[in-house]
Amino acid sequence: MIPEIGHILLIITFVSSFIQAIFWIITLGSKNTVNLIILQKFAVTNFILISSSFSILLYSFIISDFSLLIVTNNSHSLKPLIYKISGLWGNHEGSLMLWALILSFFTYLISRNKSQISFKLLSSILGVQTLILFSFLAFILFTSNPFERLEIPPLDGKGLNPLLQDPGLAFHPPILYLGYVGLSVSFSFAVAALITGEINQIWARQIRPWITIAWSALTLGIALGSWWAYYELGWGGWWFWDPVENASFMPWLIATALLHSVRLLETRLILVSWTVLLAILGFSFSLLGTFIVRSGLLTSVHAFATDPSRGIFILIILTIATGVPLILYAIRSSDLYTEKKIEFNVFSKETALLINNLFLSTATLTILIGTLYPLFLDAFNGEKISIGPAYYNATFAPIMAPVILIMAIAPFLNWGTKISNNLSKKILFIIFITLLGALLLSMIKGATLFSIICGSLSIWLFSGVLINFISQTKLNNLKKGKFRSWLKQLINNNLGMHIAHLGVAVFLAGVTGEQFFKTEINGRKNIGDIIKIGDRSLKFDDVKFEDGPNYKSEMAIFTLSKNNNLIDTLKPEKRFYPVQQNQTTEAAILSEFFGDTYLVLGDGNKEIGWSVRLYYNPLVSWIWGGACLMALGGITSIFRNRKTKSNIIIRNTV
Amino acid sequence: MKPKYRRLVIITLIITILGIATQLILMALKDNIIYFYSPNDLKLKYGETKNIKNKIRIGGLVLEDSVIIENNKTTFIITDRIHQIKVYFDGSLPDLFREGQGIIAEGTFIKNNLIASQVLAKHDENYMPPEVAEALKKNGVWQGDIKQ
Predict the structure, then answer these.
(1) Are residues B122 and A304, on separate chains, in Cβ contact within 8 Å?
(2) Less Cβ around it within 10 Å: N or C end of chain B?
């Protein structure tokens, strides 16, 4: 009975969002502000309805109600609670429910907006959000109903695929969805601007936190996925340029470009229509990503069981959600805003941000071509191909290198025509540090040309961010004032940007270490054997056979020590899940600041020993550390005081 | 910079960058494409000699009782139930690698055997790589939909 209530609630939301969308379209030209209040009420209602429906589904997972098909297929009574919960979004139907929940939550948040934004614009934003919600609810109800019942409920569930019983699944999809859905908000802002013809600095100021939230969530979500793929074997490591990975990376790149172009719009009122276009494309790419993941058209390491009919449905949504706004864009963009003829120098923030956008969108294009080219070739002559990391190393990397070069310098350029003080001095200093760093890098054993280039870019950015941070921050204020006001001042002084750019530098350092300096040892070892890694030694102590909550485990115990001082115990493990008749290999990873020791237990027994695989990955955790810094930077910049920014505008335009 | 010149500079810049990007993409596509074959397709295309220099991908099922693992080095046979290819692999196998499972091996040919640099299986036990499914269907050995 309870699941039926959930289903009915979902149908009611579907109808209510339909009515709301119709209402919005009818009242589009009206000047009556009551209409906005009605739309706001709808937004609250939809959110309450969907969260109730979602809670009911969640409840079914928690109590393991196996009369529901989705629970039977993805849960098991013996599973730990957290995996019962994450089982909800570990599958297609449930993940769409999560999508709809986040979407209606964001719509509700926008509806509460009490700022200077005009009621016409706000109504249209809510209207577009509702249309998106309506299409997703239609998708859920017609192709992927999570409340489908089984006539005869089984005694127990089939269990979630053991590989997915992982903290990675608990957090990676929801955070990524937060990003995707966040981009739907900037999409709605853009479409609403096209409909109402209203776009200005207030628009830019209102859209920016949403882009920042979406971007930070995407960054974090991708990083989590990357980390998960790194410790799970056979998923291609931290980044594989797999279509599913690209599907999340393209919206990220667009969001990055958007984050920078909206800054130009906000302060200088240029790139207006380009920003609108990016905001539309950001969401299109999110939908394209969902389509790629769910349709199964492209071969991916991360693919799950797929269903072509669902793919077609998403393709229809994608076509409408991209096509209609683009037609609207073609008609309306020219009379959106007459750009002021502002003057700026070659060495100005404007130029740097323009170049940033140009390169980022070109980089997105190369990934798009690499991801979709196999599809085209298959359609044209039936040849099956795949495009791997080599393609992206040859296209994406050289296009992004200039972005890094400019990223270090751009923050201390001025807006407009006045060249900033000491510019050449600062650049010379960065060059000096970078050359010094490159020299040191080239002395490392095994350094290649590309490793030196990659490492130098990181050093270049590190020194740029550092100089910039020091020159813009008055550290002596800390002694005089209170910590809080000092922090506030820092945040208003682009602290978020500094942190995010620092994150890129940290990330690049990690990439350099992992890509160019990792080592591998490999062989058959028995209890008592010792493996040497540099000045450390790894001793094979024991193998234990134990029972886990829902699996049987074969666990090896190794001790890592240096000069007879114990550093840590490593326990690589093989697990056998009887319910699914599956075996998984759990690598033992010792993550340290300067690198990871990554140990994998293979087959074997006491007579012949076990096959053991050992990797040392220098600086690898910096990859995710860097990504976390980027996300942190994004979140920090949301707290910027907006009033200070308008002062900047006045100063610059006078 | 005057707006008139600025527009010129920006357009030149855009064209240059797009030009360079196109060039990079074309070069990369020429050199870095990996073709996918089923064992039978490969035989039809290259005959028995398999004189292929580039990296390729072979997809099919892991033949039952063909897997030998010794010192982390794996030998197994990929089959599409018509033709088969022996694969050598010196790396970590994915967890869902097992006999009868659809997999993809990527590598280069040396003396009629595939020296794989990567073996890919999927996240989901119900999942069959689309190329493998299609290759099996084409050869008439498809065992019906694996998905329940």
Answers:
(1) yes
(2) C
